[in-house]
Design a protein that fits this description.
With about 290 residues, the protein is mainly α. It contains 13 helices and three strands. It is flat, with a radius of gyration of 23 Å.
Protein backbone atom coordinates (compact mmCIF):
# COMPACT_ATOMS: atom_id res chain seq x y z
CA UNK A 1 0.00 0.00 0.00
CA UNK A 2 1.52 3.34 -1.07
CA UNK A 3 0.97 6.80 0.42
CA UNK A 4 -1.80 7.55 -2.11
CA UNK A 5 -3.77 4.57 -0.84
CA UNK A 6 -3.30 5.68 2.76
CA UNK A 7 -4.84 9.08 2.12
CA UNK A 8 -7.39 7.90 -0.43
CA UNK A 9 -10.91 9.20 0.15
CA UNK A 10 -12.12 5.58 0.00
CA UNK A 11 -10.55 5.06 3.40
CA UNK A 12 -13.00 7.54 4.91
CA UNK A 13 -15.88 7.67 2.46
CA UNK A 14 -17.82 4.79 3.98
CA UNK A 15 -16.48 5.10 7.48
CA UNK A 16 -18.17 8.08 9.21
CA UNK A 17 -17.53 6.35 12.53
CA UNK A 18 -13.79 6.73 11.96
CA UNK A 19 -14.25 10.41 11.22
CA UNK A 20 -16.33 10.84 14.35
CA UNK A 21 -13.68 9.04 16.39
CA UNK A 22 -10.90 11.21 14.98
CA UNK A 23 -12.89 14.38 15.66
CA UNK A 24 -13.74 13.32 19.22
CA UNK A 25 -10.12 12.44 19.93
CA UNK A 26 -8.78 15.73 18.60
CA UNK A 27 -11.34 17.82 20.48
CA UNK A 28 -10.64 15.86 23.66
CA UNK A 29 -6.96 16.75 23.26
CA UNK A 30 -7.90 20.42 22.76
CA UNK A 31 -10.06 20.47 25.89
CA UNK A 32 -7.33 18.75 27.91
CA UNK A 33 -4.76 21.34 26.83
CA UNK A 34 -7.10 24.21 27.77
CA UNK A 35 -7.74 22.55 31.15
CA UNK A 36 -4.01 22.13 31.77
CA UNK A 37 -3.50 25.79 30.89
CA UNK A 38 -5.99 26.66 33.70
CA UNK A 39 -8.04 28.71 31.25
CA UNK A 40 -11.33 27.90 32.95
CA UNK A 41 -13.33 30.51 31.09
CA UNK A 42 -12.21 29.24 27.69
CA UNK A 43 -12.74 25.64 28.79
CA UNK A 44 -16.38 26.32 29.63
CA UNK A 45 -16.95 28.20 26.38
CA UNK A 46 -15.23 25.44 24.39
CA UNK A 47 -17.61 22.83 25.81
CA UNK A 48 -20.59 25.05 25.00
CA UNK A 49 -19.41 25.68 21.43
CA UNK A 50 -18.70 21.97 20.87
CA UNK A 51 -22.18 21.07 22.09
CA UNK A 52 -23.62 23.56 19.59
CA UNK A 53 -21.61 22.15 16.68
CA UNK A 54 -22.41 18.58 17.73
CA UNK A 55 -26.12 19.38 17.78
CA UNK A 56 -25.95 20.86 14.29
CA UNK A 57 -24.05 17.87 12.93
CA UNK A 58 -26.49 15.45 14.50
CA UNK A 59 -29.42 17.20 12.82
CA UNK A 60 -27.83 16.91 9.38
CA UNK A 61 -26.16 13.50 9.84
CA UNK A 62 -28.34 11.80 7.20
CA UNK A 63 -27.65 14.39 4.52
CA UNK A 64 -23.87 14.68 4.77
CA UNK A 65 -21.91 13.62 1.71
CA UNK A 66 -18.41 12.16 2.06
CA UNK A 67 -16.66 12.88 -1.22
CA UNK A 68 -13.12 14.00 -0.54
CA UNK A 69 -10.13 13.85 -2.87
CA UNK A 70 -6.44 13.18 -2.51
CA UNK A 71 -5.37 16.84 -2.37
CA UNK A 72 -8.02 17.72 0.24
CA UNK A 73 -7.08 14.64 2.26
CA UNK A 74 -3.40 15.66 2.25
CA UNK A 75 -4.22 19.16 3.47
CA UNK A 76 -6.58 17.74 6.10
CA UNK A 77 -3.94 15.31 7.36
CA UNK A 78 -1.34 18.08 7.51
CA UNK A 79 -3.67 20.21 9.64
CA UNK A 80 -4.33 17.29 11.97
CA UNK A 81 -0.60 16.55 12.21
CA UNK A 82 -0.01 20.23 13.08
CA UNK A 83 -2.59 20.02 15.88
CA UNK A 84 -0.97 16.84 17.25
CA UNK A 85 2.49 18.37 17.00
CA UNK A 86 1.34 21.48 18.85
CA UNK A 87 -0.24 19.36 21.56
CA UNK A 88 2.94 17.31 21.91
CA UNK A 89 5.26 20.30 22.22
CA UNK A 90 2.77 22.20 24.44
CA UNK A 91 4.51 25.42 23.39
CA UNK A 92 1.13 26.85 22.56
CA UNK A 93 0.68 30.53 23.50
CA UNK A 94 -1.63 31.92 20.79
CA UNK A 95 -2.12 28.59 19.03
CA UNK A 96 -4.04 27.05 21.94
CA UNK A 97 -7.26 28.80 20.91
CA UNK A 98 -6.80 27.83 17.27
CA UNK A 99 -6.68 24.08 17.80
CA UNK A 100 -10.42 23.31 17.90
CA UNK A 101 -11.12 25.16 14.67
CA UNK A 102 -8.04 23.72 12.96
CA UNK A 103 -9.00 20.18 14.02
CA UNK A 104 -12.55 20.58 12.70
CA UNK A 105 -11.31 22.09 9.45
CA UNK A 106 -8.84 19.25 8.93
CA UNK A 107 -11.41 16.53 9.58
CA UNK A 108 -13.92 18.31 7.30
CA UNK A 109 -11.38 18.14 4.47
CA UNK A 110 -10.79 14.44 5.12
CA UNK A 111 -14.53 13.81 5.09
CA UNK A 112 -15.76 15.89 2.17
CA UNK A 113 -12.89 17.84 0.62
CA UNK A 114 -12.84 21.50 -0.27
CA UNK A 115 -15.94 21.12 -2.45
CA UNK A 116 -17.91 19.72 0.46
CA UNK A 117 -16.91 22.31 3.07
CA UNK A 118 -20.17 24.17 2.51
CA UNK A 119 -21.89 21.29 4.35
CA UNK A 120 -20.03 22.29 7.51
CA UNK A 121 -20.06 26.07 7.20
CA UNK A 122 -22.26 26.50 10.29
CA UNK A 123 -20.05 24.33 12.50
CA UNK A 124 -16.84 25.83 11.17
CA UNK A 125 -17.95 29.42 11.63
CA UNK A 126 -18.99 28.69 15.22
CA UNK A 127 -15.60 27.14 16.03
CA UNK A 128 -13.88 29.99 14.19
CA UNK A 129 -15.44 32.48 16.58
CA UNK A 130 -14.50 30.32 19.56
CA UNK A 131 -10.86 31.33 19.40
CA UNK A 132 -9.65 32.98 16.19
CA UNK A 133 -10.98 36.52 16.92
CA UNK A 134 -9.33 36.52 20.36
CA UNK A 135 -5.98 35.56 18.80
CA UNK A 136 -6.29 38.26 16.13
CA UNK A 137 -7.26 40.84 18.76
CA UNK A 138 -4.33 39.82 20.94
CA UNK A 139 -1.93 40.31 18.03
CA UNK A 140 -3.42 43.48 16.55
CA UNK A 141 -5.18 45.66 19.13
CA UNK A 142 -5.08 46.61 22.79
CA UNK A 143 -8.27 48.12 24.20
CA UNK A 144 -6.87 48.52 27.73
CA UNK A 145 -6.62 52.35 27.51
CA UNK A 146 -10.17 52.58 26.17
CA UNK A 147 -11.46 50.26 28.90
CA UNK A 148 -9.69 52.33 31.54
CA UNK A 149 -11.22 55.55 30.18
CA UNK A 150 -14.70 54.06 30.15
CA UNK A 151 -14.38 52.74 33.71
CA UNK A 152 -13.10 56.15 34.79
CA UNK A 153 -16.13 57.80 33.20
CA UNK A 154 -18.46 55.43 35.08
CA UNK A 155 -16.74 56.25 38.38
CA UNK A 156 -16.79 59.99 37.68
CA UNK A 157 -20.46 59.85 36.73
CA UNK A 158 -21.14 57.97 39.99
CA UNK A 159 -19.57 60.80 41.99
CA UNK A 160 -16.09 59.44 42.70
CA UNK A 161 -12.98 61.62 42.71
CA UNK A 162 -11.17 59.70 39.99
CA UNK A 163 -8.28 60.34 37.60
CA UNK A 164 -7.21 58.39 34.55
CA UNK A 165 -3.69 58.31 33.11
CA UNK A 166 -3.28 55.82 30.28
CA UNK A 167 -4.24 52.41 31.66
CA UNK A 168 -4.07 53.57 35.28
CA UNK A 169 -7.11 54.60 37.34
CA UNK A 170 -6.48 56.63 40.49
CA UNK A 171 -8.88 57.01 43.42
CA UNK A 172 -8.17 58.58 46.82
CA UNK A 173 -8.27 55.07 48.31
CA UNK A 174 -5.88 53.49 45.81
CA UNK A 175 -5.21 52.78 42.16
CA UNK A 176 -5.38 49.97 39.64
CA UNK A 177 -3.74 49.26 36.29
CA UNK A 178 -5.91 47.85 33.51
CA UNK A 179 -3.74 45.12 31.98
CA UNK A 180 -4.54 43.56 28.61
CA UNK A 181 -5.98 40.45 30.26
CA UNK A 182 -8.42 42.67 32.17
CA UNK A 183 -9.36 44.86 29.21
CA UNK A 184 -12.47 42.81 28.48
CA UNK A 185 -11.30 41.42 25.16
CA UNK A 186 -12.16 37.85 26.23
CA UNK A 187 -15.62 38.86 27.44
CA UNK A 188 -16.24 40.66 24.16
CA UNK A 189 -15.08 37.71 22.07
CA UNK A 190 -17.10 35.18 24.05
CA UNK A 191 -20.36 37.16 23.82
CA UNK A 192 -19.62 37.73 20.12
CA UNK A 193 -19.22 33.96 19.73
CA UNK A 194 -22.51 33.38 21.54
CA UNK A 195 -24.16 35.81 19.11
CA UNK A 196 -22.87 33.73 16.19
CA UNK A 197 -24.25 30.53 17.73
CA UNK A 198 -27.61 32.24 18.28
CA UNK A 199 -27.83 33.49 14.69
CA UNK A 200 -26.82 30.13 13.24
CA UNK A 201 -29.16 28.01 15.36
CA UNK A 202 -32.02 30.51 15.66
CA UNK A 203 -31.92 32.70 12.54
CA UNK A 204 -33.49 36.15 12.49
CA UNK A 205 -34.16 38.65 9.71
CA UNK A 206 -31.09 39.52 7.66
CA UNK A 207 -31.30 43.23 8.44
CA UNK A 208 -31.01 42.46 12.17
CA UNK A 209 -28.06 40.10 11.76
CA UNK A 210 -25.76 43.04 11.14
CA UNK A 211 -26.63 44.67 14.45
CA UNK A 212 -26.54 41.55 16.65
CA UNK A 213 -22.71 41.14 16.62
CA UNK A 214 -22.30 44.89 17.16
CA UNK A 215 -24.60 44.73 20.17
CA UNK A 216 -22.62 41.73 21.49
CA UNK A 217 -19.33 43.64 21.23
CA UNK A 218 -20.74 46.73 22.94
CA UNK A 219 -22.35 44.64 25.67
CA UNK A 220 -19.09 42.83 26.42
CA UNK A 221 -17.20 46.11 26.59
CA UNK A 222 -19.76 47.77 28.90
CA UNK A 223 -20.00 44.76 31.23
CA UNK A 224 -16.24 44.69 31.63
CA UNK A 225 -16.13 48.47 32.16
CA UNK A 226 -18.51 48.05 35.10
CA UNK A 227 -16.25 45.28 36.43
CA UNK A 228 -13.15 47.48 36.22
CA UNK A 229 -14.95 50.35 37.99
CA UNK A 230 -16.00 48.02 40.81
CA UNK A 231 -12.48 46.64 41.11
CA UNK A 232 -11.06 50.16 41.36
CA UNK A 233 -13.33 50.84 44.33
CA UNK A 234 -12.70 47.44 45.96
CA UNK A 235 -8.92 47.71 45.65
CA UNK A 236 -8.77 50.39 48.33
CA UNK A 237 -11.71 49.31 50.48
CA UNK A 238 -11.99 45.51 50.45
CA UNK A 239 -8.91 43.60 49.35
CA UNK A 240 -10.53 40.17 49.76
CA UNK A 241 -13.43 41.17 47.51
CA UNK A 242 -10.95 42.62 45.00
CA UNK A 243 -9.03 39.34 44.82
CA UNK A 244 -12.23 37.33 44.38
CA UNK A 245 -13.69 39.55 41.65
CA UNK A 246 -10.35 40.05 39.92
CA UNK A 247 -9.08 36.52 39.46
CA UNK A 248 -11.25 34.30 41.65
CA UNK A 249 -14.44 32.41 40.93
CA UNK A 250 -16.56 35.56 41.24
CA UNK A 251 -14.77 37.09 38.25
CA UNK A 252 -16.66 34.77 35.88
CA UNK A 253 -19.96 36.26 37.02
CA UNK A 254 -19.54 39.22 34.67
CA UNK A 255 -19.18 36.99 31.62
CA UNK A 256 -22.20 34.93 32.67
CA UNK A 257 -24.19 38.13 33.24
CA UNK A 258 -23.26 39.38 29.77
CA UNK A 259 -24.34 36.11 28.17
CA UNK A 260 -27.65 36.16 30.08
CA UNK A 261 -28.37 39.74 29.01
CA UNK A 262 -27.56 38.91 25.40
CA UNK A 263 -29.74 35.80 25.54
CA UNK A 264 -32.66 37.79 26.90
CA UNK A 265 -32.35 40.45 24.19
CA UNK A 266 -32.08 37.82 21.47
CA UNK A 267 -35.15 36.03 22.80
CA UNK A 268 -37.05 39.31 22.58
CA UNK A 269 -35.94 39.68 18.95
CA UNK A 270 -37.14 36.16 18.16
CA UNK A 271 -40.43 36.84 19.92
CA UNK A 272 -40.86 40.06 17.96
CA UNK A 273 -40.27 38.26 14.66
CA UNK A 274 -42.72 35.54 15.63
CA UNK A 275 -45.40 38.15 16.34
CA UNK A 276 -44.67 39.93 13.06
CA UNK A 277 -45.01 36.64 11.17
CA UNK A 278 -48.32 35.89 12.86
CA UNK A 279 -49.61 39.38 12.08
CA UNK A 280 -48.58 39.00 8.43
CA UNK A 281 -50.36 35.65 8.18
CA UNK A 282 -53.52 37.14 9.67
CA UNK A 283 -53.39 40.08 7.27
CA UNK A 284 -53.02 37.77 4.28
CA UNK A 285 -55.99 35.68 5.40
CA UNK A 286 -58.16 38.76 5.81
Amino acid sequence: MNITDLISPKLFKNEPLWLLSITAGLEAICLTLVWKAHDIGHLGMSILFLFATGSLLWDKRHTLRFESDVFSSIVGLLLIIWVLWQSATQNLEHTLRLLSFTSAFGVSLLASGFKGLKQYWEELIILFFLGVPSVLADLLIDISPLSAKFATFLLWYSGFDVTNVGVNIYLPTGSIKVAYSCSGIDTINYILGISIIAMVMFPIAKIKRFFVPIFAIILGFVINGVRIAMLAVMEGTNKAAFDSWHGGQASYSYGVLGILIFGLVYMLLLKQEEQQTQNSERSSIN
